[in-house]
């Protein structure tokens, strides 16, 4: 019998409908995403890439409300390891997304580090390992971002370890958390990305539980992942090759992850994010419905 995971609030995101970009002819229209995410049984959504959903707060409020939906977070990409020189451009972008996120009544901003290699072409954009100086820039920059986002927009930032970024493996995640202030910087644990990079989600929750402010739920296919690692494939082709698997058929097991999160004793969003870009337009809804049923069977 599954435990009642009463501290876990389940949602989904445009990502689970194959949406990576504000505008792309291979993506489903935003109206269809909103219709189908509600039909699949989710109450919470993320904004996805800024500009995919309407950016006028009044219009977006009307569109989500009439479908019985609410917004849990917005998302930004940042390259703060590059130092103070990038702050002004970073803040201009973050402010745009944070303002809409705040207007939608959400409380979180998911912050993803920039990619060190192009996720489509595999072009190496910069070294995969940061220097000590760059780690310092990253830690201080994220703390500054966390403070300023909180002061200006009332949002908590949650940094998202992500494949092909500098915050990916267990060692890198631990180094980042140890270098940053828990009062300014939380963590968005994405179970799929963490497994993709060799991490153990349950162990991370048990070790750094006070830093976990948000969850993304996804699983990887171990066989596909092994090929990705062996061939050194970048993230985009790995996704197109099916590295992320519909639960409960991949790893990590989500039941134990959710139970570990429940034991933290705090309310947490757990947003399903099954990367599928690009995908056929009729593919996401049945997967989303099955995933919602599976999560209910876990008690969420």
Automatic annotation (TrEMBL):
One of its GO terms (molecular function) is myo-inosose-2 dehydratase activity. It holds the Pfam family AP_endonuc_2. Its EC number is 4.2.1.44. The keyword Transmembrane does not apply. Keywords: Lyase. Residues 34-298 form the Xylose isomerase-like TIM barrel domain. This is Inosose dehydratase. It comes from Streptomyces murinus.
């Amino acid at each position: 019998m599954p435990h009642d995971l009463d501290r876990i609030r389940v949602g989904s995101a445009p990502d689970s409908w194959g949406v990576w970009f504000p505008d792309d002819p291979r993506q489903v229209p935003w109206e269809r995403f909103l219709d189908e995410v509600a039909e699949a049984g989710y109450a919470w959504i993320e904004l996805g890439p800024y500009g995919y959903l309407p950016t006028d707060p009044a219009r977006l409020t009307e569109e989500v409300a009439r479908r019985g939906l609410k917004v849990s977070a917005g998302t930004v990409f940042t390259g703060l390891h590059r130092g103070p020189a990038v702050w002004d451009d970073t803040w201009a972008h973050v402010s745009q997304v944070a303002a809409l996120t705040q207007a939608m009544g959400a409380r979180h901003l998911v912050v993803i580090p920039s990619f060190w290699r192009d996720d489509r072409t595999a072009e190496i954009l910069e070294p995969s390992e940061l220097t000590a100086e760059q780690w310092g820039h990253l830690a201080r920059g994220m703390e500054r971002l966390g403070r300023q986002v909180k002061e200006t927009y009332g949002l908590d930032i949650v940094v998202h370890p992500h494949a092909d970024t500098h915050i990916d493996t267990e060692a890198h995640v631990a180094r980042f958390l140890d270098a940053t202030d828990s009062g300014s910087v939380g963590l968005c644990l994405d179970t799929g990305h963490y497994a993709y990079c060799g991490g153990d989600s349950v162990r991370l929750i048990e070790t750094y539980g006070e830093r976990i402010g948000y969850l993304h739920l996804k699983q990887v296919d171990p066989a596909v992942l092994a090929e990705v690692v062996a061939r050194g494939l970048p993230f985009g082709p790995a996704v197109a090759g099916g590295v992320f698997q519909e639960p409960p058929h991949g790893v990590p097991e989500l039941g134990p992850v959710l139970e570990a999160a429940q034991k933290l004793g705090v309310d947490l969003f757990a947003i399903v994010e099954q990367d599928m870009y690009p995908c056929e337009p009729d593919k996401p809804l049945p997967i989303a419905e099955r995933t919602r049923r599976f999560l209910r069977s876990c008690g969420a």
